[in-house]
Amino acid sequence: MARTAVVCGAGIGGLTAALALQREGWDVRVLERREEPLTGGTALTVSENALSVLDALGVGARARRLGAETGPFGLRRADGRWLTRPRGTTGLRCLRRDDLATLLAGALRPGTLQTAAAVTGIDPGTAGCRARVSTATTTVEADLVVGADGISSPARGLVAPGCDPRPAGYSAWRAVVTDLPEPVAAASETWGAGDRVGVVPLGHRSAYVYATAPTDPAHSPATDLAARFASWHAPVPDLLARLAGVPVHHAPVAALHRLPPRLHTGRLVLLGDAAHAMEPNLGQGACLAVEDAGVLARCTRLPAVADALAAYERARRPRTGALLALSRRLGRASLLRGRTAVAVRDRAMAAVPDALALRQVERIWAWRLPA
């Protein structure tokens, strides 16, 4: 008889976990509070570390076809001067979030994904007692429960009470712009005094555009953004002006300051932002969730769920903890505002040879799903 799993949340991590567990022979149910979880959102970057998991699940080739290769990220000052400009190709791709979610959901067995099914309670169970997951209409038992329920994860509250995300001190605006006068050739990010703008090609004269600025409740995202960056190098002002005509996702950034003291209790395990919500400074949020899913499914080859979850935690803590801390440090550097501090930061970044900068990023992307 197949072992049963309930995945709480149908984000990228939850859908990947469901698919990976099904590939390992599990009977899986995904419970999602939203009625239309496959729509909405903007875009995300997917590097080869995550694509290696999607390859193992048989959907990697299709995922690659969904997005454009970005080339390596270059970094500029607000006046347009390049600080780092690595050469070569990296395999990094930018995809619309809803396209990737639709691909993953479509690879699941029919009936796996249940929408408008908010989880109202979880009993994590024990080694000798199955877990129980409740919605407004039913309660189901499971051998495994995956908490893939995002940054405000109720599941995390059961595994690590009091381990909550904190404000990062800045807000982010994200959007997809289309019908550009000409295609964006390569991804780049521009740093100013506390502000940032990034642009990533999506193909077909479309781009993923994002900006960050210190959080100020008095500022209106709809009216202030274009004016804030009006003096920056081209094409930043034009790209931000185009946000007036498209849906923009705007929110203060929050993140965990450190990993929860544990990632599982009983038969309940955390994955993705529920486990390691980080600031969006490495382009690895979705990628790490996909990695988590692949590793968790592989660990369930162990006969006992308790052993599988312990193995998963041992495998994931070092990497996710290190990247969470690195992303936080980058966020602090991006918030520097004093003229002297910004000048010192920019000189330090410009002093790093382009080849070394690329190698540092490629070390993150070099992870592969263990056999």
TrEMBL record:
InterPro entries: FAD-bd, FAD-dep_Monooxygenase_BioMet, FAD/NAD-bd_sf. Gene3D superfamilies: FAD/NAD(P)-binding domain. Transmembrane segments: none annotated. GO terms for molecular function: FAD binding; monooxygenase activity. Residues 5-324 form the FAD-binding domain. SUPFAM superfamilies: FAD/NAD(P)-binding domain. Keywords: Monooxygenase, Oxidoreductase. This is 2-polyprenyl-6-methoxyphenol hydroxylase-like FAD-dependent oxidoreductase. It comes from Kineococcus xinjiangensis.
